[in-house]
Amino acid sequence: MAELSIFTYRPRPVWIVDCDPRIKLAALAGLSICSLGAGWTALALVTVVTSILWLRLVPSLRVLWNQTKYFIFLLALVVLARGLLTPGQVLLELGPLDLTAEGLAGGGYIAWRLLVIVWWSIILTATTAAAQIRSAVAWFLRPVPLVNEKVVATMIGLLVRFIPVILQQVRETMAAQQARAVAASSNPFRRAFKLILPVVRRVFLSADRLVWAMEARCFTPDRPFYHLDRGPADWLLASGAVVLCAALLLS
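^ that's the sequence the OP posted. Answer follows.
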């Protein structure tokens, strides 16, 4: 069984846990779209609000860093690549490439925006059960023609449940490789290659076992959905999302 992480849903004494998953999905979609052209001031406001929620969900900043450090490393690579490929005022010459101030600023803006969106996505998965997400997705897709909303909602629900399993498999593979001195290699590409292949193989094997288990139990998408109902906390979340989206659009 995958160990609990910030990606795993579990009941918490936070008001957003009791909010309607449809409001959460709509807020996430609105904030993601509105942040595409947002300025630095509005992104700072959204970051502050997100950080306040994180302080209620995560026991410490150390846990948050351990769970998201690889994604932050990926964002750092994005900033570096943007800095090396964008013309402008040269800060550092690295052979045939130049590190520019305009590139670092643009890359930092992109990385900042992606980090905020990922934080909101993790807040959604950490405060919403997979059954609730499944019901909310089916509710949104029900009016769409030629789309089986039950099948799509079931697939997304399984994807959400698989996230902590995949992370656990990555941790187990890394521990096994460290015990066999694979991680001691000085070639980062070799280490990445040796990590990705076993993890992908284990993910596909887990997916096959899941399919066999579902077929053995005569699983069908026509299962009862989670009952969705709105409460007082939903108005607070919806109002806050509208205010943040307006700030992002007007910045």
